[in-house]
Specification:
Helix content is about 45%, strand content about 10%. The chain has helices spanning about 5-10, 15-25, 45-55, 70-85, 100-110, 125-135, 150-155, 180-195, 220-225, 250-265, 270-280, 285-305, 335-345, 370-385; strands at about 35, 95, 115-120, 135-140, 160-170, 195-200, 225-230, 245-250, 320, 345-350, 350, 360-365. It has two domains: about 5-45 and about 285-385, Aspartate Aminotransferase, domain 1 (Alpha-Beta Complex), CATH 3.90.1150.10; about 45-280, Type I PLP-dependent aspartate aminotransferase-like (Major domain) (Aspartate Aminotransferase, domain 2). The strands form three sheets. Strands 2-8-7-6-5-3-4 form a seven-stranded mixed sheet, with helices on both faces. By secondary structure, it is α/β, with parallel strands linked by helices. It starts with a helix and ends with a helix. It is built from 14 helices and twelve strands. Bound molecules: pyridoxal-5'-phosphate.
């Protein structure tokens, strides 16, 4: 059967593919340690589980409006106001099946054929495919050595075809967190060149070094107006399988995303909506406890990587480390490094090329200390060969 070139060009997500490969290998009896997954290894909070069971038991599992239930949209608006300190209205929020779904809908609404979209690197693996599917051209911009935004390089990459910038802080894969000054400078750049900002804030609850998370929407009225915030339940509330997220900002964009989704997927699922609302309203204590545990793992992993002599940009958020492998086996070729690591030692991690940056590898510490230690032991053995 003939596939459209547009659809056929979409590859399976690298991170999902690697995770699946590690699991398939383990299923054949291979001893595999899997540090690929960007998925909290905790149960979702008690209130979330109770809300999910309740809605099923009460039989309220029906279609909802395409933009999500009105009370959930209001709860998201209130949550944004509480966490970002900026007022939002329910009409500016469209609930989606996930942050991924919110990002793809938003990019389909904003990106036209030939439009260029700036992506500070390293960039989460799906951005490139999403922009391309919308007909746009993703323009990766390498970071500073500490993985922070290189604003001069970003500005130099702007052309008359540039329409927006896709930013992700705290960052997957590097753990970089934008400071207020960096965020303000990004907003100024967007204002000067009339760009929209899509701000992927899925890890905003996971910031470890005492600094506040700063969203572009906190940088004045102009930035608030040109920024679409994308966030969701997966990481903060350990709700990956509930598939629920949202986009918030310009009403016309929020409306267009809802219209698109009304035709393509109908409406976000009812169970996820109730469960997410319960989490947003309750602010469950498990969230803080999870963040503390991630922080303990982060410190542990960093110390171990340092002892191995791997130069690692200090992650201040999310739950990944992104050490450099230049000067190690395979001379910085991350694909070859990860392939051999899986073959020789049964350790699955993600090459930096999945995020547009060779010479680095990503290890997720959203897994138990035992798995982390087993993985790092294998990595040490592999490096010493
Ligand atoms: N954005 C980033 C940077 C992510 O790392 C992920 C998940 O790994 C997502 C978005 C998607 O999250 P969701 O599970 O809500 O689709």
């Amino acid at each position: 059967m003939r596939l459209t070139p547009r659809a056929a060009a979409v590859p399976l997500s690298r991170t999902l593919a690697l995770d699946a490969r590690a699991k398939a290998l383990a299923a054949t009896g291979r001893d595999v340690v899997n540090m690929t997954a960007g998925e909290p290894d905790f149960d979702s909070p008690e209130v979330v589980r109770a809300a999910a069971k309740r809605i099923v038991d009460e039989g309220r599992v029906r279609y909802t409006p395409a933009a999500g239930r009105a009370d959930l949209r209001a709860a998201v608006a209130a949550h944004l106001e509480r966490t970002r300190g900026v007022p939002y209205e329910a009409a500016e929020v469209t609930v989606c099946h996930s942050a991924k779904h919110a990002l793809s809908g938003t990019l389909l609404a904003l990106v036209d054929a030939g439009d260029e979209v700036l992506m500070p690197l390293p960039a989460w693996t799906s951005y490139e495919a999403m922009v391309q599917y919308a007909g746009g051209v993703p323009v990766g911009v390498p970071p500073r050595a500490d993985m922070g935004l290189d604003l001069a390089a970003l500005e130099a990459a702007i052309t008359p075809r540039t329409v927006g910038v896709l930013v992700n802080s705290p960052n997957n894969p590097s753990g970089w967190v934008a400071t207020r000054a960096e965020t303000e400078a990004l907003c100024e750049l967007a204002r000067a060149h009339d760009l929209w900002i899509v701000s992927d804030e899925i890890y905003s609850r996971l910031v470890y070094e005492g600094e506040p998370f700063v969203s572009p929407v906190q940088c004045g009225a102009d930035a608030r107006a040109r920024t679409l915030v994308v966030d969701g339940a997966s990481k903060a509330f350990a709700m990956t399988g509930y598939r629920i997220g949202f986009v918030a900002g310009d009403r016309a964009v929020a409306n267009t995303v809802a219209n698109l989704h009304s035709q393509l997927v109908g409406a976000p699922n009812a169970v996820g909506q109730d469960a997410f609302q319960a989490a947003l309203v309750a602010e469950p204590p498990e969230v803080e406890a999870m963040a503390r545990e991630f922080d303990a793992r982060r410190r542990h992993v960093l110390a171990r990587l340092e002892a191995l002599g791997l130069e690692t940009p200090r992650p201040r958020g999310a739950f990944y480390v992104f050490p450099s492998i230049r000067g190690q086996r395979f001379g910085g070729d991350a694909d070859a490094f990860c392939e051999a690591l899986l073959e020789e030692e049964g350790l699955a991690i993600v090459p930096g090329t999945a995020f547009g940056l060779d010479g680095h590898v990503r290890l997720s510490y959203a897994t138990s200390m035992q798995i982390i230690d087993a993985g790092l032991e294998r990595l040490a053995r592999f490096l010493s060969r």
